[in-house]
Structure formats: structure tokens, C-alpha cells
């Protein structure tokens, strides 16, 4: 009788864990592109989010420059456009339908139209001197989006003070 209760409970727990793992991701910030908001070594909790629910100002995680999009086969090393982690963290500057931010994003100054096209995002690092983002590359495709940063999980460990 106890086995009849334990097995369904174990299956339920396993399904819940799978759902959480597919919906959430913990990402460790690497690099200085999001200083001062996020420091290298900080970990953030990210929730998978569809592109249509994004708003300017949100911090997002996307597949990086030169890396495969979610669900896509990774490029061979000689085909990669850049080195580094597979995920990047940036702040959304404009979403489809927003005015093209030509004044702050030099790579978009020659783009036709007045609005960000469907399926495209404009993302920027908070630290422009150390960020590869839409300022250099223009639009990123929305299919690179994994999700929105919900919160920090912990602070980076620092050396003990004396």
C-alpha cells in the first residue's frame, strides 16, 4: 500500500523538478558589461520569457554573439564570431514597435523605417566601454532570448578584511 503512494509522489516531484529546470536558469555574470548593476561572479535567477512580453529597461539573458540560438546546433569553433560564454546579459533598450534609438545606438543610424521591426531587439550593456551589444552589432533577433532576470541569488565572495 505504501508503494502505491510513494511511486506517484516520486513521479510528481520529478515532473515538478523538470518543469522548474526548463522554466528557470541560474546564470553567473561574466565580464564587466553590466557594471554597476551586476558584477562579475554574481549569480542571477532567470525565468524563460517569450519576446512579446519584454519591456524596455528589463535585464535579459540571450544566447551570445557567435553562439547558437536556443535549440540550434552550436557552431564549429572556426565558425564562431566571438569567444566567451554562451549566454550574455544585457538591458532591453527597445522592443518591436518602439522607435529606433538611433541617437544611442550608432549601428542603427542607417536602418530604414522609424520603428524596431518584428522579431528584433535592441539590447545594451550598462557599461558601454566594456560591452559588445546593439551599439556595435545593431539588432539582435528575438529568438536569441532565453528570459528575464528576476533577481540576484548571491553576492560574489570577497576577500576577508583585516
Q: Would you mind describing this structure in some detail?
A:
By secondary structure, this protein is α+β, with helices and mostly antiparallel strands. It is built from 2 helices and 7 strands; from the N terminus they run H-E-E-E-E-E-H-E-E. It has helices at 2-23, 134-137, and strands at 24-28, 43-48, 59-63, 87-94, 120-124, 140-141, 145-154. The protein has a 7-stranded antiparallel β-sheet. The longest helix is centred in the first third of the chain and has 22 residues, at 2-23. The protein is globular and about 65 Å long.
Features of this protein?
single chain, 162 residues, alpha+beta
Mean pLDDT level: 81
Shape descriptor reads: globular
Strand content bin: 25-35%
Run of helices and strands: HEEEEEHEE
Rg: 19 Å
Helical content stands at 10-25%
Structural class: alpha+beta
The largest beta-sheet arranges its strands as 1-2-7-3-4-5-6
How many beta-strand segments?
A: 7
Say what oligomer this is: single chain
Distance between the termini: 60 Å
Poorly predicted ranges (pLDDT <50, ≥5 residues)?
72-84
Counting DSSP H or I runs of 4 or more residues, the number of helices is 2
Major beta-sheet overview: 7 strands, antiparallel
Amino acid at each position: 500500500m505504501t508503494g502505491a503512494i510513494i511511486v506517484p509522489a516520486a513521479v510528481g516531484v520529478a515532473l515538478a523538478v523538470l518543469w522548474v529546470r526548463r522554466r528557470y536558469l541560474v546564470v553567473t555574470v561574466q565580464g564587466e558589461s553590466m557594471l554597476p548593476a551586476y558584477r562579475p561572479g554574481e549569480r542571477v535567477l532567470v525565468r524563460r520569457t517569450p519576446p512579446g512580453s519584454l519591456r524596455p529597461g528589463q535585464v535579459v539573458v540571450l544566447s551570445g554573439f557567435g553562439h547558437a540560438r536556443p535549440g540550434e546546433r552550436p557552431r564549429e569553433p572556426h565558425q564562431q564570431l566571438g569567444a566567451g560564454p554562451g549566454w550574455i546579459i544585457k538591458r532591453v533598450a527597445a522592443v518591436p514597435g518602439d522607435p529606433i534609438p538611433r541617437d544611442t545606438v550608432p549601428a542603427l543610424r542607417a536602418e530604414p523605417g522609424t520603428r524596431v521591426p518584428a522579431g528584433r531587439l535592441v539590447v545594451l550593456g550598462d557599461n558601454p566601454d566594456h560591452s559588445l551589444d546593439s551599439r556595435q552589432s545593431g539588432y539582435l533577433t528575438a529568438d536569441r532570448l532565453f528570459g528575464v532576470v528576476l533577481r540576484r541569488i548571491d553576492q560574489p565572495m570577497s576577500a576577508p578584511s583585516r
